[in-house]
Amino acid sequence: MSAEPRPSHHAYLLDLSRLVSRAGRMPTGVDRVERAYLDNLLKGDAPLFGLVRTAYGFALLDRTGMSELRARFAGTTPWGQTDRLSRMRRGLSEPRRRAEADVRRLAIARCLPQRLTRMLKQHVPRGGIYFNIGHSNLTDRVLTAVVQGAAARVAVFVHDTIPVDFPRFQRAGVVERFGPMLRRVRARADWIICNSHQTEADLQRVMGPWGAIPPIIVAHLGVGLPEPAVSWPRPEGFDPDRPFFVTLGTIEPRKNHGFLLDVWASLVQHGKAPIPQLLICGTRGWNNEAVFDRLDTDPMIGRDVFELPGLTDAEVAAVLGASAGLLFPSHAEGYGLPAIEAAALGVPVLCNDLPVYRETLGDIPVYASVDDIYPWQRIIMAILADNRAGSEKRLIDVPGWDAHFNTVLSRLV
Fold first, then answer.
1. Does one domain contain both 328 and 376?
2. What contacts 149, CB < 8 A, 6 or more positions away?
3. Mean pLDDT, the chain cut into blocks of 10 residues (413 residues total)
4. Domain of residue 42, residue span
5. What whole-number distance in Å separates Cα of residue 153 and Cα of residue 73?
6. Contact, 237 vs 356, CB < 8 A?
7. Structural domain tally of the chain?
8. One domain, residues 212 and 290
9. Do residues 169 and 275 both lie within one domain?
10. Model pTM?
């Protein structure tokens, strides 16, 4: 771990490799956190730089370039055209080619991997802080260059330990990469940032046998509530006059969509009318062929259950606001922002009884084990009855990002 004292006006170096690599894709929770760090650090007046790993090496942005990049992620400025280098690189999506081309146009400096230390030494004030929020680019090469080239200290955001604790839910290669990444973080970070005390406890359990753990900063995530869209796309066969529930998230094993399909199959077969509809809002992920097959072939799909991928944040807010409730049967969550966002909108939440929800939402949701579908059926129909009876929405105050950054930045000393 680097130990040089922080100067009074330290610089920040924010790694933006993950965001650029995922240009054109629906943002995940980790993407949203990295975006929040970009937004917040741009508000300050400290020297600020962005580091991006591209297909051809590294690019360094100053505050102006980062602001321009933020405008592209926000959609207020369109992405530029691909350049010659992007067109030469096979295997990149068109949005990523355009994003990397813009990064090169906006960069104040670029280098091949072996010259990263020299580039940082030439352009970044010494003694600052390097933030890695999305785990992309969190390599020995980068950590060494950051410390040697910029004399920077390192702050890494660890969102959860799910790949270690639930390897069966991961896509190929994640588990093999995650353990070594955590070992690098333990050995080389000056601080670890966590989203919850539950994640902190998980990290201490996983990292403790390896040796001393860097100081951990716990700061709950901010919740941004967009203005709901005026309209949202109704899937074919959806009945707007019939109540519906929503589940949000990538269709992957950890999110437990198969459990909800079992719940709905039983409701359709044995439940009393009216049977609510289920909207599955999320793209198809990995290792979930049995669920995908059900979504493609089950007779209740297109009649009682509907897939609705690709919604914007504003459309998601509109869907949630119109729904009878959010259902979240996940086996594990690092933070579970959708449940918090739904609760902030006054939408009933039914979720698996996970410790992180007890920490962040207390007694707001209804909790039910995913070991049995029947309590879920009963609670779903009870929520539906409450909605018909006009029960008053229970709104909650949610943490803002200012509180998160006040906690984090005040601890980086």
1. yes
2. 116, 117, 118, 119, 120, 121, 124
3. 45 97 87 95 95 96 97 93 85 91 97 96 96 93 95 96 90 86 95 96 96 96 88 94 94 95 94 88 91 95 94 92 95 89 91 94 94 95 82 71 94 85
4. 12-222+402-411
5. 27
6. no
7. 2
8. no
9. no
10. 0.90
